[in-house]
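Review session, final week

We close the course with one last complete record, chosen because it touches almost every idea we covered. It is DUF4007 family protein, a protein from Methylotuvimicrobium buryatense with 311 residues. Go through it on your own first, then we will talk.
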Amino acid sequence: MDCLIKSLTPNKAAFGRHETFALRYGWLTKGFQAFQHNNEIFSSDEATVQLGVGKNMVNAIRYWLRATQMLEVSQDGLHATEIGNALFSEQGWDPYLEDEATLWLIHWMLASNAELATAWFWFFNCFHKSEFTVDEAANSLVDFVNQELTGKHSERTVKNEINLILRMYSQTKATAKVDLEDILDVPLASLQLISAGTSPQHYLTRLKRRNHLPLAVFGYAVNEIFNHRKISTLPIAELMYGEKQGVAIGSIFRLTESELLAKLERLIERYPRVYQINETAGINQLFRDDENVESLSFLRHHYENREWVNA
């Protein structure tokens, strides 16, 4: 399976394509299975009837399927990815998001997709303030866009991305602008990666142990990093913090340094023929001995065996 990480490219960025709709429970399954039955569903006049939503929500569902990399566009048009089929087909591993591993995986897919989920990529890889206000995050994202990206991007649209990220990941209260249905129907809030602070505009995103992050998803992410970088050796510090504006597992999952290392040790215990840690020139490095191991195999062990849930 091809690596699904999408690096930051100055001329490839996306903001506001979700029509301001946060990802909801059921959308990925409903949209994916509808696409399997009719690969032109999102451009069909029947889409609103079959999906049971308005036109703008149809566009949002298509966007979220692409942003989470369950569907992708190629020269032949829109098609399902291997991981999309594995998870959300009618006989998939977890089409109804009953396993928390799937939520962690969806989060990883968003945060490692700089092309279509640029704000999510930035927030979880490049924004390192553990306490912040909405305005601080929004202004930082605008600065990042102005300094690192090309093309024209509406400042208002860019800033609004922060509001949607907070709505998707934190347990916020209903307001005149955000109704109760939107709050109760956001699956990624259960990951507790962002929490409300002491005031309505104040938020926290702390590094923690993340005991509920399954080793399978962590292993999948580690393997994707190796595939993306096309290397066999990786400094552990780069897994924690990433290259400059690169994908950083520790940051995406909001792990402490000690917990990242602990999860790597557990990964090595389970896959001693694939990974090992050695010190080279005073630098702790993770080695991958088997470059042919498929990222999907880590997930397959979890979903088909259900023997090792948490790391």
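Two points worth writing down before the exam:
The two ends are 24 Å apart (CA to CA).
Residues 116 and 286 are 29 Å apart (CA to CA).
Good luck, everyone.
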